[in-house]
User: Which sequence fits this backbone?
């Protein structure tokens, strides 16, 4: 990892259930979590140290520490909640994949618009559906800027890498209600190259195992440069079900929309 913050990977589970409007899931497999958590802790610690060197804290009102490079219009509470980091203004790594509608697309196709990019497992029922809900909320919060922002997902499950797989997930999570949504997939070597380029850690030992992967949202400016990175969150109940309070999901949606709007101008 070099100069990028990652979150502890989320473990895929199956069996979605809902309580009110809060997405919840019941894990099917939990074996291997302790070993993976230990490895993830090492990754997180190294990435956090690199991120600090890249984006040293600046002092905000009240003497609180605030990561430099984040627009002042983004409240400190949002910076903290999303664990935002500013990235060097370097060209975002390019890629070419196929979206959920079978269209071949490259990152360069979206020049002139802000891009919100996440890496998702189409069989995930843990953090991925929650991030999807946040994307839908963010799209609606964009208002007049909605046409200036593109939402992209890149598949992290090489065993379910077909167009039908990413289309089914997009429909299930209502991502298809976002006109600019593209869930991208392709051959395993191309997917692995994108994971590496964006420092996404993926463990997928076999088709029946849990997919463990880094969850990170990248914000790419209309000129194609990386600007910010956020670390999505998920909580787990005592029974192991994953959830995030509805208010926090909505707050994440607002935060994503505000950051994308600052980039879109």
Assistant:
């Amino acid at each position: 990892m070099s100069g990028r913050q990652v979150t502890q990977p989320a473990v895929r589970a199956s069996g979605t259930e809902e309580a009110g409007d809060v997405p919840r899931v019941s894990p099917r497999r939990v074996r291997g979590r302790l070993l993976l958590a230990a490895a993830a802790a090492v990754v997180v610690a190294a990435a956090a140290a690199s991120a600090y060197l890249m984006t040293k804290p600046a002092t905000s009102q009240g003497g609180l520490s605030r990561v430099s490079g984040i627009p002042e219009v983004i409240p400190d509470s949002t910076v903290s909640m999303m664990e935002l980091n500013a990235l060097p203004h370097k060209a975002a790594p390019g890629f070419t994949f196929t979206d959920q509608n079978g269209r071949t697309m490259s990152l360069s196709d979206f020049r002139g618009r802000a891009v919100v990019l996440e890496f998702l497992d189409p069989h995930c029922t843990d953090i991925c559906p929650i991030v999807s809900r946040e994307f839908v909320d963010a799209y609606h919060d964009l208002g007049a800027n909605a046409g200036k922002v593109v939402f992209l997902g890149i598949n992290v499950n090489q065993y379910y890498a077909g167009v039908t797989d990413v289309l089914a997930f997009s429909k299930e999570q209502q991502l298809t209600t976002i006109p600019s949504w593209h869930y991208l997939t392709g051959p395993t070597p191309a997917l692995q190259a994108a994971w590496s380029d964006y420092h996404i850690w993926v463990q997928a030992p076999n088709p029946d195992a849990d997919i463990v992967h880094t969850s990170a949202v990248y914000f790419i400016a209309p000129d194609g440069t990386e600007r910010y990175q956020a670390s999505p969150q998920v909580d787990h109940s005592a029974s192991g079900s994953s959830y995030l309070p509805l208010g926090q999901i909505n707050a994440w949606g607002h935060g994503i929309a505000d950051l994308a709007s600052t980039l879109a101008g």
Remarks:
- The chain has six helices and 17 strands.
- The first strand starts at residue 10 and ends at 11.
- The radius of gyration is 17 Å.
- Helices lie at 33-54, 76-81, 128-142, 163-172, 188-197, 246-264.
